[in-house]
Design a protein that fits this description.
This protein is mostly helical and about 50 residues long. It contains 2 helices and no strands. About 0% of the residues are buried.
Length: about 50
């Protein structure tokens, strides 16, 4: 598995840290899940545009 470092502005970092605490998951897992979901949504949107 590859590892990446990302920079988040303080408001975004605070949002995801609070979310991670609320759901009881590590911050890294919450960020990973959020990025994976966004990637899937963008891929579906791109496929939809290509097929239209």
């Amino acid at each position: 598995m590859d590892f990446f470092t990302v920079q988040l502005d303080p408001a975004t970092a605070s949002f995801y840290q609070n979310l991670a605490e609320c759901v009881g998951l590590p911050l890294e897992q919450v960020l990973s899940d959020a990025l994976f979901k966004l990637a899937a949504e963008l891929s579906l949107e791109a496929l939809h545009r290509k097929c239209s």
